[in-house]
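> call design_seq(struct)
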């Protein structure tokens, strides 16, 4: 795939080392990257460019990633957005405009895999992505991991 036809990923992070590292990794894997060092710059780039996907940090000064994602979804709802955080997952209410959440502590291979999955799913309508995610959660709840005793998953009467 030529770089000209490569997916364009907008990366937003206020920590320069994380931004530069992610940009280098994504470009090494054949993606074009638009780096932004803050929320306002990221929103400006999003408005002015044809972006295939967005990767945004959660904790940023001035405007957190969940707020940035909500603003972007109001502009172009079809663009998938991944939220990154160095901490635990934000509260569910903060993930409404997010297509994928990933911890910054994940390996580079896991990060690239998550990006690829997000890009594969982007062609599906928003409702379809939501439905598949919902079905996946139901399936995980009906089929607990083998190493966890069943009684921990049963509802008490």
């Amino acid at each position: 795939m030529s770089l000209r036809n490569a997916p364009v990923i907008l990366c937003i992070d206020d920590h320069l080392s994380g931004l530069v590292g992610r940009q280098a990794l994504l470009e090494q894997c054949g993606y074009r990257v638009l780096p932004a060092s803050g929320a306002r710059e990221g929103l400006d780039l999003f408005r002015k460019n044809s972006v295939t996907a967005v990767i945004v940090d959660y904790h940023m000064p001035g405007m957190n990633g969940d707020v940035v994602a909500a603003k972007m979804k109001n502009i172009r709802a079809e663009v998938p957005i991944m939220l990154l955080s160095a901490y635990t997952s934000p509260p569910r209410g903060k993930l409404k405009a997010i297509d994928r959440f990933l911890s910054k502590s994940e390996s580079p291979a896991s990060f690239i895999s998550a990006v690829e999955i997000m890009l594969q799913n982007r062609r599906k309508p928003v409702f379809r992505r939501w439905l598949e995610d919902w079905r996946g959660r139901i399936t995980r709840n009906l089929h607990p991991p083998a190493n966890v005793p069943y009684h921990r998953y049963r509802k008490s009467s």
